[in-house]
Amino acid sequence: MSNIRHALSVKRSDDFAQWYQEVISAADLAEESGVRGCMVIKPWGYGIWERIQRLLDDRIKETGHDNCYFPIFIPLSNFEREAEHVDGFAKEMAVVTHHRLVANGKGELVPDPAAKLEEPLVVRPTSETIIGDAMARWIQSWRDLPLLTNQWANVVRWEMRTRMFLRTSEFLWQEGHTAHADATEAKEHTLRMLEVYRACAEEDLAMPVIAGEKPENERFPGAVETWSIEAMMQDGKALQAGTSHYLGTNFSQAAGIKFQSQEGKEELCHTTSWGVSTRMIGGVIMTHGDDDGLRVPPTIAPRQVIILPMLRGKDGDDDLIAYCEDVRAQIAQQSALGEKVRVLLDTKPGKAAAKRWDYVRKGAPIIIEVGGRDMENGVVSMLRRDALWAENGKPDFHTPLKNDIAAEIPQLLEDIQKTLFTQAAERRDANLTRDIDTLDGLADFFNADVKHPGWVEVQWSKPTGSELEAVVEKLKELKLTIRNVPMDSPAVDRACIFTGKPAVERIFVARAY
Amino acid sequence: MSNIRHALSVKRSDDFAQWYQEVISAADLAEESGVRGCMVIKPWGYGIWERIQRLLDDRIKETGHDNCYFPIFIPLSNFEREAEHVDGFAKEMAVVTHHRLVANGKGELVPDPAAKLEEPLVVRPTSETIIGDAMARWIQSWRDLPLLTNQWANVVRWEMRTRMFLRTSEFLWQEGHTAHADATEAKEHTLRMLEVYRACAEEDLAMPVIAGEKPENERFPGAVETWSIEAMMQDGKALQAGTSHYLGTNFSQAAGIKFQSQEGKEELCHTTSWGVSTRMIGGVIMTHGDDDGLRVPPTIAPRQVIILPMLRGKDGDDDLIAYCEDVRAQIAQQSALGEKVRVLLDTKPGKAAAKRWDYVRKGAPIIIEVGGRDMENGVVSMLRRDALWAENGKPDFHTPLKNDIAAEIPQLLEDIQKTLFTQAAERRDANLTRDIDTLDGLADFFNADVKHPGWVEVQWSKPTGSELEAVVEKLKELKLTIRNVPMDSPAVDRACIFTGKPAVERIFVARAY
C-alpha cells in the first residue's frame, strides 16, 4: 500500500517528535499561547478532555469521593513544613509577590511597590499542603474517616523544556486526597485509585497500561509509596500516565491531621493523593495516532460520527441536507458504549473533501459523506478511521443503505474501541523484552541501532540509598529509567542484573517521556 | 407559629449579613481557607456549582459555542493595550514575578532573585486580552465567523473586602468570548447570551431576575454596552448575577482581530464577552434561604431526596436498611425536571434527628425518614423542605405508603421548584416601587426606617459624562446604584427625576451587593 498519500507531512517512522507536533496542529488540538510554557487547548482537544473528565469523575464518585475546590494560592510557609516536599517542588513554582500594578509614568505598568505581599503566595503545583490544612480542620474523630475528596483544577510547575500536553507550565488535572484511620486502609485506597486509573486508561482511552510501584528514587516528594500506570508509546518510550501515592503520616504530621480513635486515643491520619492530567491526551495521541493524524477512541471522542453533505452551493443542497439530517436523527437515537451516540451534521461552508481530511486528521471514529449520487441510490458513503485505506491505496469507503446505517453504528463504534485497544496492546506486548539478564546485555540492547527498543523487564535486588543511586546513574548513561515494579508478576528466579545479589522483584526499565 | 424552634441561631430579620454567614457554615457550603480572600468550596457547595455548570454548559453549547482553555497567566503588556481595560483592572491583580523559591539559609524559603521574570505575569482577572490574541491568530476570513468560544476557569481579582461566594479574590466562572463580522450580529449575540443567563437563573436556579442594560458608568472596562441580570435578595438589595458585554471593536483594535470580508476588504471583528460565576451560589442562598438554612431548588440540588433510616445499632438495622434501599431503588428509577432523580440513602453513623437537621440546613428538597414503626406500617415519613413546619410548630411530616412514594416524587420536586420561584418572584414584585417621581421622594423612601426598601424604578433622561457623574454621586450619598434599564419596559411618560428633562428610559435604583 505504498501508493497511499497520507494526510500528514511527517511519518511516525521518520521523526516521531515532529510527527507528534504535527498531529497536535493537524488535529487542531492545541497550540502555543505565546505565554511561556502555557498552551491554548482548542475545541477538539478540550472536547477530548471533557470526555475524560466526565468518565473519570463518574469513576471517582463511584468510589465514594466528593468534589471540592481549594485555593489556587498556597502560602509559601506551607512548603517549609514537609522537608522532602520542599526539595521536590520548591524549584519550579510561580510566585506571586504583588497584588497590584501601577503605571510607571512611561506608559507602562509595573508591580506596585506599595502592594508587596507580606508573605509571597505560590501558585499551586499540587495541593497536599493546603488540603492538609483543611483536613486538619475537618477531622476530629474516627467517625469523620475515611475523608475522601477530589478536585479538578489547574496547577503550575515552572518547566524549563515544555511540550504540549506532556509537560507544560500550566496543566489541568484532578487531584484526589484522602485521610484514613490506619496504614492498611490508606494503602488499600492507594491501590483502589490506581485501579480506577487503570480502568480509565484501558477502558475509556483504549490505552493499555502496566500498573506497579515506582522505585524509591521516583517517589513523589513526601510519599512513602508511589504507584503508577505506565503506557508504551509507539516509539517504544514509556509515558507515566497517572500516579497514586500512599503518604503515610508525613503530611498529617506536618499539617496536624489527627483524630480521636474509637479507643479515645489521639492518632495521626494516614493520607493518600493521586492524580491524572491533560498529559493523558499526549498518551492518546502517541498510542493511537497514525500517519493520517489522530485516531480518537469512540468512548472519549467529542463526536463519534461526522456527517458531511457534499454541498455544491446549488439548488439540490436543501434536499441533500434534509437527507443527511434524517441520517443524523436516526443515528442520534442510537446508544453505544453505554451512552447516546454523539453525531454531528457539519454543514459549514467548505469543500467536502477538505472537510473529510480535517476530520480524518482529528480522528473522528466514523465519517459519513453524502453526495448527490448517494442520495439517488439511497445509500451513504462511510469511512472507518481505524481502517482508512483500501488495498488499492484509496480511502476505503463503504456504502450501506441509508436506512441501515443507524442500526450499524453502535457495533461499529464498539468494534473501533476494541480494535484500538487491541492494536496498542499487541504492539506493546511485542516490544516487551524479558530475556536480558546482564547489565552489558541491557546496554547492548539499548545501544543497538533499533529505532524503538521498547521496554525491558529485568530482575533486581531492590537496592536502596547509595546502592540505588549507583544503579540510577548507570541507567542514566543509557538514557534509561526504572518505570515500575509490575503488579502480579511471576516469582523471581535470577540474580539482580545490577548487584548480582538474589533478585527480589521484577522492574521495567525504559526510555521515557 | 411563633413556637417554632428554627435550625439557625440567627434570623434573616435580625441580622441578614450574619444570617448569610451562618447559612454558609450550617449548610456546609464553604469556609475561609486561611489564604487571604480565598475560600474552600465544600462538597455540598461544590455539588451545587457542578449542577449549575452542567446545566449552563448545555445551554452554552446549544447556542453553538465550543469550550476551550486559555492560559491562567497573562503577560503584563497585554493590559497596556486597551486603555479603559487597564484602568478597570490594573488595580487589583495577583502578579507573578518569580519562578522559583530558594532557601535563605535560615530554614525559610524566599523568591529566588536569580529567577525573576523579565516580564511579570498577571493571574487572569478576565481573559479578553489573551483570548483576543488567539482570535487574531484563528480568524482570517468571514468564513471563520462567528467564532464562538467559552471557557470554565478560575480567575483572581484582589479584593480588599471579601465575602464568601459574593466577592472572593479567587472565584470560579465561565467566560464566553465571541467574534462577529458586524455590530448588529455581535449585539444580537450579546442579548442571546443574556437570555441564556436569564433562563438559567429563572429556570434552573428558580431565581427571578430583571434583564437590562447597565448605565454607562457601570460598563465593563472596555465595553460599548454592558447588560446584566439583576436578582433581588431577601433584604431587598440587588445582586448582579451575570453580565454580557458588547465590546465593539475595542479589543479587536488592541489585539488585531481582523477578517477579510466577502467583498475582500480587511475589517475589524466586533466582539462580545459574558460571564457568570460562583457568585450565583450567593444569589441562591439569599433568594431561597430561610431561618432553617438553605433551600436548594431541586434542579440544582446535588441530591434531591435524602433517605435517613433511624438506625439503632441493633439487630433490626439490617431490615430497616433493606426497606430503605428498596425505597431508594424505586425513587432512583424516576425522572423529574428532565433528569433521573438524584437520591441518597445515608447510612453513616449518627443520630437520625441530628442528620435530619443537617439536611434541613443544607436544604435538600425532600427528606425521608424511616423508623421501625414506619416499616411496620409500610409507610415512610417525609418532609418537604419548602414547607417544613406544620401549624402546630412541629416538622410537617407526611406518611405516604412506601409503595406510593416513588411515583409521587417527580411531581413533588417539580412543585418545589415552582414554589421557590413563585415565592421569590412574588416577594420581588412586592418590593418594586414605581410611584416615586422626585429625587427628594427617592431620598425619603430610602432614608425611611424600612428594613428592606427594595428597588425603585424611576424615569431618567440618560445623562452622560459629568451630568451622569453628578447623578451617580447623588445616588451614592443614598448608598444607591443604578442597576439596569429593564428590557421591555412601558414607554416613559414623566420628567427625569435627576435632571428635570424629559425622560428617555426607566432605570432601577437600589442598594446592591
Give a short summary of the structure.
2 copies of one chain form a homodimer. Chain A has 13 helices and 27 strands.
Main β-sheet description of chain A: 8 strands, mixed
Query: What is the mean pLDDT of chain A?
Result: 95
- At the first level of CATH, the class of the largest domain in chain A is Alpha Beta
Radius of gyration of chain A: 26 Å
Tally of helical runs of chain A: 13
What is the helix fraction of residues of chain A, given as a range? 25-40%
Q: Which fold name fills CATH's third level, the topology of the largest domain in chain A? A: BirA Bifunctional Protein, domain 2
Largest interface: A-B, 66 and 66 residues
Beta-strand fraction estimate of chain A: 15-25%
Give the name of the CATH architecture of the largest domain in chain A. Answer: 2-Layer Sandwich
Distance linking N and C termini of chain A: 32 Å
Q: Strand tally of chain A, please?
A: 27
How would you describe the oligomerization state of the chains in this entry?
homodimer
Shape of chain A: globular
Write down the domain tally of chain A. Answer: 3
Please give the order of strands in the largest beta sheet of chain A.
3-9-10-16-13-12-11-26
pLDDT below 50 for ≥5 consecutive residues: which ranges of chain A? none
